[in-house]
């Protein structure tokens, strides 16, 4: 009987090995006590064309498959979930999908993370108005209600109001408790936030219960590839605050906002022109890290494949102050013929951040 049990166990192990997908490259943490967060840049070009939509699902499926190996605590997305929020006749250039089809595709991609890990999404200019931010009409609350992801029941701690005075996840805060970094608070702000949204975030982060939290602010539009904070952008939505105003009104006066993450800016240029990073001291003399990351034209086209599936892996090292940033594509990592292209290793794509 003992021999049969051993044989059965061996066969089960072999069957699992045989059925397991073979990845030529699997990212690993540099330290066994680290945890990570994954940053998804603007996904709009994945969902505007039907042929690109599986690439967005590849990203979220890869994240779901890597939760344990990378000890992923949360997933952040820089917004612009769709190319156009309220379009009924696609023009073939800005996509061949209606807005409803685009929202459904974005929703379907995040379904792979529901019930598995908290994710935080900020809204982008393309998520508002008819085409892009003519007003604050937005279908984000229809597809991402607070009840959607079971993981939010433990992490979602505050919800702000949208332009109609309705509490939605367009402005929301999520708490993450860790062994090595203490408590983190990720606050997402709507595109070009109204004064009311900024005031909600200011009051929230200033509460005594969050005094010792390390706060990460996630908002769509904040700074350019030249690391210059936006003063004004050419959108009709009003009232609105852009990067410099967000810094002046919210980040600079804050004791605990230690990092700002955004997307939005993108041109058909090399990788260096699609990312940026800067640090500035806040009112209390602490350095605040500010990072912009987008990839929607990473393949060199406005209407290409959507961004070559580039992600940023943010490893929070166990020293409680260092974040190791790496830029990785699960699309390239899937094949033995392309896995050598799965990492972007230039200094602007692979670096460390020190949080004070």
UniProtKB/TrEMBL annotation:
Keywords attached to this Swiss-Prot or TrEMBL record, sorted alphabetically, are: Signal
Q: Which Gene3D superfamilies match?
A: 3.60.21.10
Q: Which residues cross the membrane?
A: none
- Please state every residue range assigned to the domain named Calcineurin-like phosphoesterase: 66-266
**Keyword Zinc-finger part of the UniProt annotation:** no
Family annotation (InterPro entries): Calcineurin-like_PHP, Metallo-depent_PP-like, STPP_CPPED1
Q: Which SUPFAM superfamilies match?
A: Metallo-dependent phosphatases
Gene Ontology molecular function = hydrolase activity
Signal sequence, renumbered to the chain: 1-20
Query: Source organism's superkingdom?
Result: Bacteria
**What PANTHER family does the record point to?**
METALLOPHOSPHOESTERASE, CALCINEURIN SUPERFAMILY, SECRETED PROTEIN
Q: Name it.
A: Calcineurin-like phosphoesterase domain-containing protein
What organism is recorded for this protein?
A: Phocaeicola massiliensis B84634 = Timone 84634 = DSM 17679 = JCM 13223
């Amino acid at each position: 009987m003992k021999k049969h049990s051993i044989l059965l166990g061996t066969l089960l192990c072999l069957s699992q090995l045989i059925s397991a997908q073979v990845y030529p490259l699997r990212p690993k943490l540099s330290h066994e006590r680290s945890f990570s967060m994954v940053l998804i840049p603007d996904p709009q070009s994945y969902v505007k064309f039907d042929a690109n939509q599986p690439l967005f699902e590849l990203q979220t499926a890869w994240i779901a498959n890597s939760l344990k190996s990378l000890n992923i605590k949360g997933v952040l997305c820089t917004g612009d979930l769709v190319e156009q929020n309220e379009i009924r006749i696609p023009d073939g250039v800005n996509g061949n999908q209606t807005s409803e089809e685009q929202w459904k595709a974005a929703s379907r991609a995040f379904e792979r993370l529901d019930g598995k890990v908290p994710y935080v999404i900020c809204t982008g200019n393309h998520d508002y108005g008819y085409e892009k931010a003519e007003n604050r009409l937005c279908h984000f609350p229809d597809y991402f209600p607070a009840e959607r992801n079971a993981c939010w029941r433990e992490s979602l701690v505050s919800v702000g109001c949208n332009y109609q005075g309705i509490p939605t996840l367009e402005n929301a805060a999520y708490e993450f408790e860790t062994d090595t970094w203490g408590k983190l608070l990720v606050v997402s702000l709507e595109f070009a936030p109204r004064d009311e949204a900024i005031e909600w975030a200011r009051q929230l982060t200033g509460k005594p219960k969050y005094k010792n939290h390390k706060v990460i602010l996630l908002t769509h539009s904040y700074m350019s590839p030249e690391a210059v904070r936006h003063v004004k952008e050419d959108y009709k939505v009003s009232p609105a605050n852009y990067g410099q105003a967000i810094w002046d009104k919210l980040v600079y006066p804050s004791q605990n906002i230690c990092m700002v993450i955004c997307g939005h800016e993108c041109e058909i240029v090399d990788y260096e022109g699609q990312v940026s990073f800067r640090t500035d001291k806040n009112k209390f003399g602490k350095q605040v890290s500010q990072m912009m990351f987008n990839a929607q034209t990473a393949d060199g086209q406005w209407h290409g494949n959507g961004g070559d599936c580039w992600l940023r892996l943010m490893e929070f090292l166990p020293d409680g102050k260092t974040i190791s940033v790496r830029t990785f594509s699960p699309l390239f990592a899937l094949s033995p013929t392309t896995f050598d292209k799965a990492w972007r290793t230039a200094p602007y794509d692979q670096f460390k951040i020190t949080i004070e």
